[in-house]
Every structure is written in C-alpha cells, then in structure tokens.
Amino acid sequence: MPETQDVKKVVLAYSGGLDTSIILHWLQHTYNCEVVTFTADIGQGAETERARSRAQAMGVTSLFIEDLREEFVRDYVFPMFRANALYEGVYLLGTSIARPLIAKRQIEIASETGADAVSHGATGKGNDQVRFELGYYALNPDIRVIAPWREWQLNSRESLLRYAQEHQISVDKESDDTPPYSMDANLLHISYEGKILEDPWQHADNSIFRMTQSPQEAPDKPDTLEITFERGDPVAIDGTTMTPATLLTTLNERAGKHGIGRVDMVENRFVGMKSRGVYETPGGTLLLAARRGLESLTLDKGAAHLKDELMPRYAELIYNGLWFSPERTMLQAAIDASQHHVNGKVRLSLYKGNVTLEGRASPDSLYDPDLATFEADNIYDQRDAQGFIRLQALRLRMLARKRGQR
Asked: Based on CB atoms within 10 Å of each CB, which residue in 7, 91, 258, 293 is the most buried?
C-alpha cells in the first residue's frame, strides 16, 4: 500500500475519461485527500466539458479548465518544428510535445492551490509517465508524484469498469461504437494505439481517422496554398496573417481534406519496448515540407547539414520527455540561431495524400541564378574545378597506390 498519510491535496491531470475518472475517485478514497482537477484544452475538442461535469459530479470543488491552444502551438509546437523534428525519421511528436505544457501548468496550479502532490493517468508501460514526471521534477524537484497505475491492483479495462460500477462512477459504456483502439488528440495530431492495432500486420481501417479524408476519396482537383514564414515560424496562409493556433487549425483542415498526414509506424518506446502507433498530423506535415523548402534557399550548407545532424538527438529528447533539460535548451538555442533568415513564402500543392513543393521565395535567399546557371557566366571559372578535384582525390590516389603495391 502507498504511504497516504502525508498527502493533503493533489492536482490531477484530468480528461474526464474512464481512467482518470477512476483515478479521481481512487485518490479521494485511498489518500483521503482533496483532489484539484486540471484539464488542458490543447485542441482535443468536446472532451473539456465532459471533464467539467464529471469532476463536479464527483465532488470536486476546485477545478481548472484552461484554453492553452495558443500557448501550445506558439511555445511548444513551433519551436519544435524549427528543428524539423522527426522521431525515428517518421513521427512528428504530436503526443510528446503536449506533455511538458501540461506538466508545467500542473506544477503552477499546485503552487497556486497549496497542493503537495500531482498525479497523472499514464500507465506503467508507456512513455507518458516518464514525460509527465520528468517535467514535474524539473520544475519542482520536491513535488510528490502519485502514479496510480504503478500503485493499484487494477490492471485492465475490465477491472476499471468493475470499479466504476461498484462505486457508481459515471463513465462511457462499452458499445458497438466503442473504438477498437485508444486515442489521444490535440491540435497537432491524433494518435491511435492498442487493442486491434497491437497486431502490426493488422490494417488500420479508414474508419478510424478523424482529421484526414481517405486519399482515395479526396478531391480530384489539387489545392494550392502559400505559407509565409518569419524567422522560421509560419505567420500567414495565402497572405492572411493568423495566430499560431488558428494557422495550424487552418492547415489541418486544408491538408486533412486531401488525405495528407497519415503515418503507421512501429516505434521504439523510451521504456524499452516496441509499440505500433497510427498517427494523423495533417497541418504539421505541410509545415515540415514548407520549412525545409524555405531552408533550402536561406540556410548555408554547413548550417543546414549541422542542423540535420542535430535533429535526431533533439527529437529523441522530446520523445523521451526531456523538454526542460539543459541539453534541449542548448540545442534549441542553436536551432533558433539558424532561423534568423528563414523568411519568405512557400507554395504547396495538396493532392490525394501528397504534398508537393511548387515554389519558394525569400528576401534572404542565398540562391544566385547567375552563379547556378549552366549558361555562360563571368563569376565561376570552370577551370578552377580541376585543382579542387585533384586536392579532393589526393588521399584516394595515395591509398590506391599503396594498396596496389601489395
């Protein structure tokens, strides 16, 4: 049994779903403490109102439901996207990047309300427990963390449902419409895991997707749009300036209509196992293509190549929950320094699951058509290439001669 006598008030990251509703009741009765619920609206939809009504029904008098969509995109998604971050070359880190913001706000609420503990609903087999708790401890090294899935004996959905019935907790009932997977949504993406998807050979049926149209059913006419960037961040679509959250919402709608942004992968979790995940990240997929297109004009070769070398390490830090680590902060400073001249616009074509870069322009472009041309010019003396090649070949020629003597 956990030591419960010293916990007086706990801030719970609360979604209003089955797991966290059971946790709310369990905390109240196991620890005999006051529970403060915190629900972050980061673009998951109607879930926030469900959380309010269920928390109130369970006697919660101090609850926080906050719209963090702008902060989420501006201070977390956009900085991550400046790195063109992809975990294992595929995953755009939609779940990973939401956790540090939730953890930060939980710690702030704990301070505001005098709570001595925080709690979350992540299981003991997943990455999110690590992400939440590394965030908690980075911001308050002395905070008490309660992780029910590592303490209680409830180890399956069936046991949770029995607990809910025994204690008359209102939860969503299983039905023919209950999704055969678990889902996590925010403004950047939706993830689907578990149940039927645990078989990596099993096809993810088109019916599961919420943000994207099937590419086969997408419009037969391409959609063309322009994204404007300032210092590496998108600021406008087709010339209309937008806030970060509005811009990402608009890109989600435009890309989703054309079936763009679906990923099916088997990833290596931080805790050591492989996991199959299916993701939808429509707007983020457009931003990745657009930013790389603009950087091809505006970044020096050395800076661009170094940035690509740093990216996998940066992505892994975020995936592993180390947003608040000094190494992530150091890498962010280097990445942000590379973005000072990433200004301009990119034209994209969206068509049946594909995004094609059709044009890019920048006032800070390093591209010189007079230098790049295959026609006659007065800048580049092609005879200079002979000495350049001979110097590059020197070690190869010496190696070939030495080996040839054996």
From this structure: 258
